[in-house]
Amino acid sequence: MTSSTGKSYLIVGAGVFGVSTAYHLIQKYPNASVTIVDRDAYDATSRVAASWDWNKVVRADYDDLVYCKLGLEAQEVFLNDPLWQPYFHQTGIYWMCRSDYASEVIGNYKTMGREGELKAVPVAEAKEMYGGVFGDADIRDVKEVLVNRGSGWAAAGDCLVAVTRKALELGVKYVVAETESLAFSNDGTRCTGIKTSKGETLKADHIILSTGAYTPKLLELSAYEARKPDLSAGDRIVAGGITTGMTRLDAATYPTYAKMPVGVQGYTPEAGPFIGSLPPTKDRELKWWGQSIFTNEQEVLPGSTLSAPPAKPDYGQWEVSEKLREDISYANHVFYGKKTKDWKMEKHRICWDAFTTSADFIISPHAAALGLYVATCGNFHGWKFFPVLGKYIVQMLEGALEPELAQKWAWDRERPKDGKDNADYPRHQMKDFLDPVRQARL
Ligand SMILES: Cc1cc2nc3c(=O)[nH]c(=O)nc-3n(C[C@H](O)[C@H](O)[C@H](O)COP(=O)(O)OP(=O)(O)OC[C@H]3O[C@@H](n4cnc5c(N)ncnc54)[C@H](O)[C@@H]3O)c2cc1C
């Protein structure tokens, strides 16, 4: 897999990190060999990627200035580039804050000269906004509501397919294959490619892992096979799952919600992760995500246990237990109160992502082998940066990332010992949510 320019890139994983990398690479190096490998076809009707979803929140309301800037940069692309525009819905966001989040975000927007776009609204006044759609929300401990009209949501799966298709038109290749492990030079110092479950070896001089929640398991298996223990992710990356669910609004109910903003119930890290409710899609489907974020510990090798998605081709993502479904009913309740309690919940899904304790991405060379790079760890907030992730990943590949970003996203850096200050860090175990029958079968 080399090209006339001599540059060759093998990107494992066709989520937002991988596809954005391919898209930026092929634009910068039109003659390079750029190949994406994924276990699922990019236009399959069901995929395991966290990036493949009905919709995702697109916002820049971050208390961390780096992600605030990055969010605004991505939003510019969503608003102005015809490839991305059709998928972005700038509905605004309505964020019920139980901490100083609103003032921190407003401070960051001020730094960026964008303070006109958002405001902190007193709770009583906010209840009346947007036709009172959140008038029955649970507002216990809410200090104020952050309203940002620049934020919104994107039709995530459709956008992922469109950008992948565009990358293919520009010359990127797409191979459907399960990557079983990594391949190395004879002396073990350089990663030379991947081995697939069908026994093929694909080679390139840059191997980029954008494998989301599967990354720790892939590295663990590769470490064992190559006898290179330093390949393991160790405590750098943890796979975590969360439930989403949807209801389909009937024609009479739809107009009440048609123009709603994205809703967020924000909590402190001690109380739990933030819960979200996304406006209806073109099929009138309104979505929530739940409050339980969990690991799935499994023995991947004798004596080696880590969290990974269930070992099934589809990660068992459609097998959602009663307890996890209740998570979505609870989310419904804290946004809309009693009036929506009879809504029929449909399309439950468990979605897996890769987490770090600091909630930062890893966009970095892997320290244990030349030619091996890691670009993933969306931490449950990576989708919105899709248009610009690849730009920074290409900078990383070329050693040109700003020092602040290189340090923030490094493979080896000091991270908090645990995720206690990261509200979204997994705090539960999947086994505690399984239905009794399924548990008995384990
Ligand atoms: C329920 C949920 C809601 C979210 N909501 C938002 C939101 O509103 N806004 C937002 O910005 N972010 C959100 N996120 C986070 C965001 O979706 C992720 O951070 C982001 O999509 C991760 O992208 P990725 O490319 O790292 O991984 P993924 O999208 O998971 O892609 C990884 C890819 O690697 C492939 N792969 C893995 N292992 C192998 C292998 N061995 N061989 C071949 N292929 C392999 C998989 O098939 C997959 O396609 C949410 C996440 C979840 C789970």
Q: Helical percent range?
A: 25-40%
The backbone outline, from C-alpha atoms, is: globular
* Largest sheet composition: 8 strands, mixed
Name the average pLDDT. Answer: 96
- CATH architecture descriptor text: 3-Layer(bba) Sandwich
Strand content: 25-35%
What gyration radius follows from the Cα positions, in whole Å?
Answer: 21 Å
Top-tier CATH class: Alpha Beta
Plain-language structure description:
This protein has one domain (8-428): FAD/NAD(P)-binding domain (3-Layer(bba) Sandwich). Helices cover 26% and strands 26% of the residues. It contains 11 helices and 24 strands. The longest helix is centred in the first third of the chain and has 16 residues, at 65-80. One of its GO terms (molecular function) is flavin adenine dinucleotide binding. Residues 9-396 form the FAD dependent oxidoreductase domain. This is FAD dependent oxidoreductase domain-containing protein.
Q: Which key phrases capture this entry?
A:
442 residues, alpha/beta, FAD/NAD(P)-binding domain, eight-stranded mixed sheet, six-stranded mixed sheet, globular, binds flavin-adenine dinucleotide, FAD dependent oxidoreductase domain-containing protein
